[in-house]
Amino acid sequence: MRQPRILVVDAAGATGLPYARLVARLQPMELRVESSLARAVDSLSRDAWDLGIVTVRGEQSIDPLHGAIRRADPRLPLLVVDPQPSVEAARSCLQAGPCDYLAMDQVEAGLEDALVRLLATSHKRDAEEVLRRVVERPYSFEGFLGESPPMRQVYSVIERVATSNVDVLVTGETGTGKELVARAIHQRSRRAQGPFVPVDCGAIPDTLLESELFGHERGAFTGADARRMGLIEFADGGTLFLDEVGELPLPLQAKLLRVLQERRVRRVGARQENAVDVRVVAATSRPIDEMVDRGGFRRDLFYRINVVRIDLPPLRIRGDDIGLLAEWFANRAGQEMGRPVAGLSTDAYQVLKSYHWPGNVRELQNVVRRAIAMARGPMAGVDDLPDDVVTAAGRSAGAEAGAIGFFAQRAEQIARFERTYLTELLTRHLGDVSAAAREARLPRGTLYRLMKSHALDGASFRRPPEPRGDVPPADSPG
Ligand SMILES: Nc1ncnc2c1ncn2[C@@H]1O[C@H](COP(=O)(O)OP(=O)(O)O)[C@@H](O)[C@H]1O
Ligand SMILES: [Mg+2]
């Protein structure tokens, strides 16, 4: 993790520096001291800070300086050190934004805790920033999230074809976003005000499909006791999305071809045809080219709908999109479950990135939702992922080039370093955690957490009392 960046604002000069030194002893960090309000405001507007420390000289009131800094950055966590503490001043600081308020004479005792608390707020702020960034969806395109090159390619094709009236074939594995493509094309077309009508050809029984699509006249077949408009006519003026078009039985394929060529529909049992103005976006997750070769799909219909083809890449080749999507789904699931800062641990992200995602974005969405629901804290970890995902991801990560991946190796090196460092440090200080923390320039809490994660405890480093110098060891020569 990068070092925290702390801005000390000390309009009166002179007093800020001692705190800065104190802070620097407690926590490795980047520090800047500004001794005028103007310069501080300038720094705030130009750089990103994790924490501000605001203080004035004894005879001054803290209010004007604090107020000006707060206005310059409404969300920066601030530590206000007030030489003339009052309940009103404390209250007005605390109400104005994330803040901790210390009387000048509490600084020695209270600084460390305040810092740890405020820097934690600042991490939460990072999480909120991520959330905001994702909510604004800078890499999104009509409901798509993802900025990998193959997806950018997809967006650009959608942009180019949407405003024309051509029919489009969308191919790609299940869950890759074929329906999203259809909706995006509709949304960006001149038909956007018209209806978008999705029909899943694989989900409607063959016997119903014809009348669902084409409609029927009264008495056209047993049970047809009223005339009914089909979904094709229903899409008049808009877009008809024929999902899993490969499932369409051959006779209906012929009828559909006629609709596409003539833009006319004949209801089942009707004599005359009705004109329709529809654009068709068809999709399939089956290898439609092979189906054509084997006679399962009409070649003429295939040519008719294959004029523009958008082939969606499987999620496993979209690189960082996996992380971006996982983060977005985690945040959204967290919001829905009333946990606004929900996220995934770094290890969990690694697992997600190594997995092969046969169910693509839909599967990722489900896995992340489940993980957030299972998580005990705000962060979901590897334990919260389904076993089969973790196992398969481990296998493929291990198979890659026959070696452990970069991240796994890095994590291992870091863990090894931490263990050696802590052991030596605690040995040097005989298990005195406060002294060890001072030397390591870590907040005590952080050191405790690190020790815990390596199952180390201070007591085991305390040596039995040394023999006193004035008592010669029993075995020393006389
Ligand atoms: N790039 C993406 N960004 C965000 N959500 C996506 C993306 N691709 C797919 N989804 C979501 O994943 C789910 C499956 O998408 P869908 O279009 O129904 O896939 P398909 O039709 O290819 O099976 C939907 O909930 C969809 O909103
Ligand atoms: Mg679908």
Commentary on this structure:
- By secondary structure, this protein is of the alpha/beta class.
- It starts with a strand and ends in a 25-residue tail after the last helix.
- Helices cover 48% and strands 13% of the residues.
- It has four domains: 5-136, 3-Layer(aba) Sandwich (Rossmann fold), CATH 3.40.50; 149-313, P-loop containing nucleotide triphosphate hydrolases (Rossmann fold), CATH 3.40.50; 316-402, Helicase, Ruva Protein, domain 3, CATH 1.10.8; 406-461.
Tag the structure with descriptive keywords.
alpha/beta; Rossmann fold; Helicase, Ruva Protein, domain 3; five-stranded parallel β-sheet; 16 strands; elongated; binds magnesium ion
Q: What would the CATH topology of the largest domain be?
A: Rossmann fold
Helix tally? 19
Overall number of structural domains: 4
Bound molecules: adenosine-5'-diphosphate, magnesium ion
Share of helix, binned:
40-55%
In CATH terms, the superfamily of the largest domain is: P-loop containing nucleotide triphosphate hydrolases
Tell how many strands the DSSP assignment holds: 16
Runs in which pLDDT lies below 50 for 5 or more consecutive residues are 133-138, 466-478
Give the structural class.
alpha/beta
Q: What would you call the shape?
A: elongated
